Amino acid sequence: MTMIRNDKHQKEYIDKRGIHVVVGHYLGNDLPWETTPNITNEILNTNGYSPIPKAGDNGQPVFISPHENAKMKTLFHINRFNLLASDRISVNRTIQDARKQSCREKSYVTSNLPDTSVIIVFHNEAWSTLLRTVHSVINRSPRQLLREIILVDDASERAFLKNPLDDYVSKLPVYVKVIRATNRTGLIRARLMGAKVARGQTLTFLDSHCECNYYWLEPLLTRIAEDRKRVACPVIDIIHDENFAYVRSFEFHWGAFNWELHFRWYPLGEKEIHRRQKDGTLPFRTPVMAGGLFSIDRSYFEEIGTYDEMMDIWGGENIELSFRVWQCGGSVEIVPCSHVGHLFRRSSPYSFPRPGGVGSVLYTNLARAAEVWMDDWKEFFFLLNPGAKKMRKGIDVMERKALRERLGCKSFKWYLDTVWPEHFLPTDGRFFGKIRNKKNGKCFQRPNTKGTARQPVGKVQLGDCVFETYPQQYFVLTKEGFLMTDESICLDSPEATADTNVVMLACNEYKRQKWKYNPTDRTLVHVKSKLCLDLPSSHSPDGLTLQHCNKLATQEWLFETVTWKTS
Ligand code: LR7
Ligand code: MN
């Protein structure tokens, strides 16, 4: 079985001390959980919910004592989170109000807002996490705005998710409808089943392991009331997979993607930060939504073509919906006064019961999104992702292309230029390719990603140039002089003095990251220090350095274009 890294979710940033911090991540794998020892059907079908008074209250972590370690570890495998801890926390637990002061001062007139149907799809979710999601919605939403909760069971196998669930929700003070897929259909089609029966003016989607914070719903619906073509997402806080602590997340990140079309969080662009300095409660646009948590006007959802029904199981639908909404005249935004916690896991607990497993499912979904929405850039995606290219022949996206036509949507170039000008994809005015040193013939190579940090931050190495497609050695040089590569990292010189190392760091649009390539003498000059990029030195031997310009071959760089467009 092939292992693919599907590192989808993470938030990370360089803090004031220059330390790289990862605050949430998701490392999917396709290890069959069946190989996990000692999980009997009896354990799987037992609802172990047995809350201990005050455990986890106020979003505090719950720790399991060492003598229960073995039990904890066994149960951890079932959902890939600490089920024993979750089962000890009340489904009605309190959490800390994660809003900042300026948000708390806002008031909302609920009578002016549209109501919503909350749609939660699940496959083999634990009782405690699923019901904690439901109760957090009920406890922290104004009753007038909560039309109903729709639970869509995507062919779960657990006994407690059948009749016991129906009985339990029938006694809740809010109307909760449970509908079921007879066969595993995947989260995208399961959400469509929910949307079909929903009656609210808006739809609000949540994953089945969330905790809604205080006043989470009003700010989202306010944005839609003002403009029905807005898709509103909350700030996603972190519920810790090991101890269920509710951890407030950063508001200064937006969602986008990397060269593999995997969702990524990146620090907000400079313009957006600037605009928000006056008022930190202002919603900000996001090029892509995370996917699981958002509100949308119900009729607008239908108008723009709901989801691509041919997308299976998991993945890609958030990219597709985001491209579609932006390119077809709507907007996707993050509303900083709305916070919802989501349980982040490091791997996926469920099977992908399809030929080819997670890889072919995800790549097919991504190939569909690319084929319909990315114009020229789909060729870039397929060039760099042979796994997706393999799926390309087998997909039929005629209907989705017709939808794009019918809606008169804008180009992907418009999307990049307007919605995500900070992007690191090649474009017409940019160099894209390999950078080779004249003296030793070696190529620029981005730092290896090691450990938990996903953005490949570190000193820049040279490697033997690879002739085949090799994204590690591909770089973009923008007209403005930023030398960037995948994952939004840029060539930077923290010291900006002679004989110090250059590094790849999160792109930040500051002068320290600007370079000027001089095609006549082939130097790459650091704009701020006027120093030249050079090979490692005895003083700084671990990577490329800045040195006084000396016209030697070690300071000559050959830019070799890689063609990515067919036309
Ligand atoms: O076959 C399936 N059927 C389902 O009903 C597979 C999953 N599901 C359910 C599942 O029970 C859960 O409620 O679908 C939901 C999402 O699945 P997760 O929680 O395993 O996925 P995730 O949290 O890794 O998923 C993120 O990416 C997905 C891509 O398809 C979806 O867009 C998820 O909604 C999305 N989750 C979030 O955006 C939460 C915040 C993460 C961040 C940042
Ligand atoms: Mn999830």
UniProtKB/TrEMBL annotation:
Domain Ricin B lectin residue range list: 429-560
CDD domains: pp-GalNAc-T
Pfam families: Glycos_transf_2, Ricin_B_lectin
Enzyme class, first EC level, given as a word: transferase
Coiled-coil region(s): none
Keyword check for Transmembrane helix: yes
Subcellular location: Golgi apparatus membrane
Cofactor: Mn(2+)
Chief location: Golgi
Keyword Transit peptide: no
Keywords, ordered alphabetically: Disulfide bond, Glycosyltransferase, Golgi apparatus, Lectin, Manganese, Membrane, Signal-anchor, Transferase, Transmembrane, Transmembrane helix
E.C. code: 2.4.1.-
InterPro entries cross-referenced by the UniProt entry: GalNAc-T, Glyco_trans_2-like, Nucleotide-diphossugar_trans, Ricin_B-like_lectins, Ricin_B_lectin
Bilayer topology term: Single-pass type II membrane protein
PROSITE patterns in the cross-refs: RICIN_B_LECTIN
Pathway noted in the entry: Protein modification; protein glycosylation
Family according to the record: Belongs to the glycosyltransferase 2 family. GalNAc-T subfamily.
Protein's recorded name: Polypeptide N-acetylgalactosaminyltransferase
Species this chain originates from: Limulus polyphemus
Phylogenetic lineage: Eukaryota, Metazoa, Ecdysozoa, Arthropoda, Chelicerata
Name of the gene this protein is made from: LOC106457822
